Recover the amino acids of this structure.
């Protein structure tokens, strides 16, 4: 029983990492129409940048901020130099970003070596809290906290701000939104940068759990795609739900039935595609 | 927009014949490790040409074509290594059946969410589904270890037995690849130039109109997916004997990457485009494996990026190296006769268009 | 005689917009019926309901006495229904010849033939030649369709809709965007269609409507506002107000 609770917490923290990635991925897709299969590689890059900052100045929060900004800049550069020229060509965007992901991973390996680097949890977040007889790693609680915070911010942005309203209008009918005199370009750029920054944040806060290694984004990217499809695009609630389902499923699966856990998530993915292509909470796609 | 003219047809047929003869004679001149490189080009060329049936002709992009490649490779390997059935032909047959079955099963969810009219969804869903297929199968191959050898796959696939004499040697294997490659390419060529093949082109251009004309486009897309899967599976069988190993990676993105890179590199407007892409790719891979083993993913990624950014693209078609080679050949056919003071062959319209 | 095509309370709405509202229409075999109405009246949407591109929110469609409300687009074509599109809908990367051949084999068994080269199919080549000659496109057979002039594309558009030898031909603004001379030519062609073909056509061009139609139906905000013979429609004050009036306001089409 207690084992299950601890696994549940692990699953929860994993789910929030997935949420950060999937939110960024589906924002860039929903708003910019960009299929970014380099999202996992950018996450990994974020982890390495964060690691480097911590190694030099020992400031966790600074690392988070630097990684977020760096990723936003790198992401935008990739958009400007490559993706922009592939406007509305989804398969080509996929091909391009697969290539970019390979390049990023190999360059990271070149600079930092192929080995995994472990990363210490920041000061004050090490150790374990005891509730009754159960011990929870503080850092995982912290990850959950950050995730909830980001969820709240995104949710607020989606439902209560002008940016959210414009995004929704743009997803319904981009041309109409633009013709109403709304600067959709500015809003979508902002949202794209936000999505990239979230990948950077996810990298830095994820690294103390998994360590940083060049292929750390690969599997996570695939799970992110599953989350996006399972949750549906267009609503942050959907992304969160998808992340929870997949994060918990994967963690519990690995803990209890490790042999089949590997493709558990894919089966859920296919089931959703078959039965409910718009996702659990998504905009109707047909 | 190549037009084929009777005279030009002769020229093209001659070119195909000459190339075939050269490839046939290569092992006589080249050391084995060179001719095995050519065998690899043929295998990858077959693999990519099978993807081109759907990607290039019917405009069904797939990021998971390795699902069939892996299925073919594993079927053949399992038959030999686990069931002890050594006949190459039985393995081939088994692989064809398995990859057709897998394509038939995966095609149902895939095409449920892809198409025009009622039931159509953004192509991203289809692409994500195709990624899922390959990954699902590779995870499956890791999981059912007793059958598939788990995460390290299976090695030690013996040399092929063709049913007469003993197992064939490397040089004979080269001819086997050549023979099967030629047969498969011929079949694919015929399929793509039949009524069915032109219907696929129609779906590429305008699926809505095809339906209005009376075509069950779903059925065409679904069956073309299976056809592509079968030929992809055959390429997988050859690959398993070629390297004498199978790995979960044979199903995964990393292998699918190769298939669509070759399609884009070689171009989708001519039948043999992916073959040209394959020659180019395997050449670079070989050079890189000698000098820059460590940086191969970087080079591979860079080729993908360059191919997608630099390949002339219009109306969902790529004009890669293949059309370039064709242009060069047509230019030669015009220029060379003039050197002898002869007039180039006159063109007569036939209506075949592209 | 039983009507060839009949709709029964046919309606569809897009979100809040009721584009077609409870339309009851019957077409007799051999009839020439024109569907007119201002822009956005729901004419094309009504066509899409007939051919199955759209599913109705309510109501039924009967063709040759059969309920085809839920039949697929292609099966309706096999039953003998065919349409042209308002926005030219061809195979732009293929040659004119290939377009014709693809069009012709849509209702033939041979469309599933996957081994014999299509160009070796003598019957098909001959049929394509006839079709293209009838549309005066035979000389252009090698041209890539995307590079044809607009008027020629429109001809091919109509040629393709005739390829399946339909009993019911649905023409969506066949002369849309053509010059006077070209649309007079189209009018002549539609007139010349045999009496075996029943024609339902959408048109803004009054010369075409009055030149061809036996009966005219006016659609307004998705509803049948009035119907009658050409003469009745010409005299009808409501038609003038709705149609000609709005047309002036919209600056015509
Ligand atoms: N798929 C759709 N989704 C939402 N609204 C639609 C759709 N198709 C048509 N409409 C709307 O339905 C109304 C009727 O459109 P329709 O194209 O049928 O008009 P029409 O009578 O053919 O006009 P025109 O003379 O311009 O061709 C229009 O207001 C149009 O915007
Ligand atoms: Mg219309």
């Amino acid at each position: 029983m207690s084992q299950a609770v601890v696994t549940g917490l692990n699953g929860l923290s994993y789910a929030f990492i997935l949420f950060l990635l999937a939110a960024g991925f589906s924002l860039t897709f929903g708003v910019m129409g960009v299929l970014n299969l380099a999202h996992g590689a950018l996450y990994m890059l974020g982890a390495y940048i964060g690691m480097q900052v911590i190694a030099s100045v020992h400031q966790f929060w600074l690392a988070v901020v630097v990684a977020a900004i760096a990723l936003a800049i790198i992401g935008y550069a990739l958009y400007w130099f490559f993706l922009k020229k592939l406007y509305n060509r989804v398969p080509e965007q996929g091909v391009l970003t697969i290539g970019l992901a390979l390049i990023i991973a190999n360059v990271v390996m070149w600079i930092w070596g192929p080995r995994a680097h472990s990363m210490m949890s920041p000061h004050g977040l090490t150790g374990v809290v005891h509730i009754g007889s159960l011990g929870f790693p503080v850092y995982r609680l912290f990850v959950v906290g950050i995730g909830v915070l980001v969820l709240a911010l995104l949710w607020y942005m989606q439902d209560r701000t002008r940016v959210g309203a414009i995004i929704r209008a743009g997803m319904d009918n981009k041309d109409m939104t633009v013709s109403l005199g709304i600067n959709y370009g500015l809003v979508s750029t902002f949202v794209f940068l936000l999505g990239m920054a979230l990948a950077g944040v996810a990298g830095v806060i994820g690294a103390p759990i998994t360590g940083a290694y060049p292929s750390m984004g690969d599997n996570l990217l695939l799970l992110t795609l599953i989350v996006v499809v399972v949750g549906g695009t267009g609503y942050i609630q959907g992304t969160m739900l998808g992340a929870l389902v997949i994060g918990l499923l994967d963690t519990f699966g690995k803990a209890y039935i490790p042999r089949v856990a590997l493709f558990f998530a894919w089966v859920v993915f296919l089931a959703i595609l078959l039965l409910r292509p718009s996702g659990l909470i998504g905009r109707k796609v047909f | 927009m190549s037009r084929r003219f009777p005279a030009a047809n002769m020229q093209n047929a001659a070119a195909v014949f000459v190339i075939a003869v050269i490839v046939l004679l290569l092992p006589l001149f080249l050391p084995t490790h060179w001719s095995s490189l050519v065998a690899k080009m043929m295998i990858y060329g077959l693999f990519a040409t099978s993807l081109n049936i759907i990607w290039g002709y019917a405009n069904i992009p797939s990021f998971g074509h390795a699902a069939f490649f892996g299925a073919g490779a594993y079927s053949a390997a399992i038959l030999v290594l686990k069931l002890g059935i050594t006949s190459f032909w039985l393995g081939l047959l088994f692989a064809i059946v398995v990859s057709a079955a897998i394509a038939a099963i995966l095609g149902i969810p895939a095409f449920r969410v892809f198409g025009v009219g009622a039931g159509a969804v953004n192509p991203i869903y289809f692409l994500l589904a195709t990624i899922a297929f390959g990954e699902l199968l590779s995870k499956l191959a890791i999981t059912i270890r007793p059958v598939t050898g788990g995460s390290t796959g299976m090695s030690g696939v013996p040399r092929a037995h063709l049913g007469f004499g003993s197992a064939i040697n490397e040089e004979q294997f080269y001819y086997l690849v050549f023979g099967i490659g030629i047969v498969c390419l011929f079949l694919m060529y015929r399929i793509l130039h039949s009524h069915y093949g032109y219907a696929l082109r129609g779906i590429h251009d305008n699926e809505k109109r095809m339906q209005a004309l009376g075509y069950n486009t779903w059925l065409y897309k679904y069956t073309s997916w299976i056809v592509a899967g079968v030929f992809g599976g055959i390429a997988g069988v050859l690959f398993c004997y070629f390297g004498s190993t199978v790995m979960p990676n044979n199903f995964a993105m990393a292998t699918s990457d190769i298939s669509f890179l070759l399609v884009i590199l070689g171009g989708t407007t001519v039948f043999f485009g992916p073959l040209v892409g394959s020659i180019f790719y395997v050449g670079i891979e070989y050079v890189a494996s000698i000098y820059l083993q460590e940086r191969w993913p970087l080079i591979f990624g860079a080729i993908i990026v360059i191919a997608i950014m630099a390949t002339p693209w219009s109306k969902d078609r790529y004009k890669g190296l293949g059309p370039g080679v064709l242009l060069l050949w047509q230019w030669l056919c015009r220029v060379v006769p003039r050197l002898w003071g002869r007039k180039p062959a006159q063109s007569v319209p036939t209506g075949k268009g592209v | 005689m039983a009507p060839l095509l009949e709709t029964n309370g046919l309606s569809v709405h897009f979100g809040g917009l009721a584009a077609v509202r409870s339309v009851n229409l019957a077409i007799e075999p051999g009839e020439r019926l024109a569907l007119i109405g201002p822009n956005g009246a729901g004419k094309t949407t009504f066509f899409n309901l007939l051919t199955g591109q759209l599913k109705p929110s309510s109501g039924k469609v009967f063709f040759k006495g059969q309920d085809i409300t839920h039949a697929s687009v292609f099966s309706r074509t096999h039953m003998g229904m065919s349409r042209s599109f308002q926005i030219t809908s061809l195979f732009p990367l293929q040659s004119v010849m290939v377009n014709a051949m693809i069009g012709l084999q849509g209702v033939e068994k041979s469309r599933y033939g996957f081994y014999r080269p299509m160009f070796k199919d003598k019957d098909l080549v001959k049929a394509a030649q006839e079709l293209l000659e009838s549309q005066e496109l035979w000389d252009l057979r090698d041209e890539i369709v995307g590079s044809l002039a607009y008027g020629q594309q429109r001809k091919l558009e109509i040629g393709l809709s005739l390829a399946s030898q339909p009993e019911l031909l649905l023409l969506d603004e066949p002369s849309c965007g053509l010059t006077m001379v070209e649309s007079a030519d189209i009018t002549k062609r539609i007139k010349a269609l045999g009496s075996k073909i029943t024609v339902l056509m959408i048109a803004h061009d009054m010369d075409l409507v009055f030149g061809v139609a036996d009966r005219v139906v006016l659609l307004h905000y998705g509803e049948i506002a009035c119907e009658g013979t050409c003469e009745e429609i010409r005299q009808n004050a409501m038609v003038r107000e709705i149609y000609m009036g709005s047309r002036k306001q919209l600056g015509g089409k």
Summary: Chains A and C do not touch (no CB pair under 8 Å). The mean pLDDT of chain A is 87.
